Amino acid sequence: MLRATKDVVMPTTITGSLPRPSWYTENLGNRSFLDAMVISRFREQYVDALSAYLREQEVAGLDIVTDGDCRFNQDIGGQSWTSYPPNHMEGFDRDRPKLAAVNAGGIGFPRGHILHDYLEARVMPKIVGPIGRGELQYAEMFKAAQRLTEKPVKFGTVTPELVAFAVQDEYYKTIPERIMAISDALNQELHDLADAGCSVIQLEEPQIHLLAARNYVDTVINPQFMLEVFNNTVKGLRAKTEVWCHTCWGNPSQQRMFGSVQSYKPALELLNKVDADVITFEMKSSNLLDLEDVGKTITDMKVCIGAIDHHTLQVETPGEVADVIRAALKVIPAERLVLSSDCGMGREGMSRRHAFYKMVSLVQGTNIVKKELGLPVKESMGADPKFTLLRTK
Ligand SMILES: [Zn+2]
User: Fold this and answer.
1) Which residues have CB atoms below 5 A from the ion given as ligand 1?
2) What 3-state class would DSSP assign to 127?
3) How far is the CA of 317 from the centre of ligand 1 (A)?
4) Do residues 72 and 87 lie in contact, with contact meaning Cβ atoms separated by under 8 Å?
5) What is the largest CA-CA distance in the chain?
6) What distance in angstroms lies between residue 107's CA and the mean position of ligand 1's atoms?
7) 3-state SS of the chain: helix, strand, coil percent to 5?
8) Rounded Cα–Cα distance for residues 10 and 17 (Å)
9) Whole-angstrom Cα distance, residue 25 to residue 366?
């Protein structure tokens, strides 16, 4: 059901992650969130970083905020995004983590490529027993963020198949069994999160479009199965809260996972069937490739378009953001349009200041178009000329 975006025309948000403050030196590691929050040094840094993430989004003027993925470690290529679940769920041997196998999940980068480091950082616990929710504690982390802001906090999680592809397994006999076990456990966790009051839950990176784009031919691990996995992971959730499906082409170390711009086209029919209220598409970095097809094919959900590129340090101007939105409005009605960054801003590749001004531009650009349409705007405090420190007289 629509909650966070209900009755909001062209709301703005980001995907999830924000660059870490340099002073946020604590890492959660394999501890449970509640265990770590007992330690005063961790709690102070976590809550301060969380407050900074939320405040920057509020000052920029976003309608829907995130916790900046505050739980994740300062690690190579943002690997925590994938490794957080196996390091906190039941059924994994955390004492003896193993490097992922070569080409696990079908991705390989030769030594000499920056993403080879990302692959070498896939040191994951192995599956040794039945998978359960364990200590994911998504509801607790959501509440820690939501109690600091009146804006809706969007809480995101990696999809089960990405966890399943990255780990070694001594328990399940087949990959689909492994994926569905993680999916079932995540579904329980997400219900707990919805029951805690989270008004937007985002599933990040179902492999529907990635397998379709790679022409990955497999009778079992294919885009149709990935659709079933997505719908199983969010089963029953939309009766309680708003569900988003985030799709992009990757962002470890702010890199594309593929050398060239990829097309969503082969996956759009299936993506229109995800059990979600909102679906996101990377658009800015592909120069609006597929925008028309997205508008034509995605008919049942709100469509969230990326108008900010997470790969580049050049901050988009409000005018550039407005151009993306005007193009989107030609194929997606304003009541079904949501604006965001293409993907997360990441923790290691971009400075906090770049991320902040990208968010300010997103809001300013959206305001330009809202004014053209006669819609009410709330100006970005981050761009309010009243507060310049420069002397005007
Ligand atoms: Zn993404």
Assistant:
1) 248, 343
2) strand
3) 22
4) no
5) 74
6) 16
7) 40, 15, 45
8) 21
9) 35
pLDDT digit string, tens, across residues 296-339: 999 989 999 999 999 999 999 999 999 999 999 999 999 999 99
Residue whose structure tokens are 């995004």: 81
* CA 391 – ligand 1 centroid, Å: 41
Nearest to 355 by CA among 10, 148, 55: 55
**Ligand 1 centre from 232 Cα, in Å?**
20
Whole-prediction pTM:
0.97
Looking at this protein, which amino acid is placed at residue 195?
D
Q: Sort strands 123-132 and 90-99 into parallel, antiparallel or unpaired.
A: antiparallel
Strand order from edge to edge, sheet including 302-308: 65-66, 153-158, 200-204, 242-246, 278-281, 302-308, 337-341
The tokens for 233 are 């992971």
8-state DSSP, 316:
P
> Residue 91: helix, strand or coil by DSSP?
strand
Distance 280 CA to ligand 1 centre (A): 9
- Residues 94-123 have pLDDT tens digits of 999 988 888 887 788 999 999 999 999 999
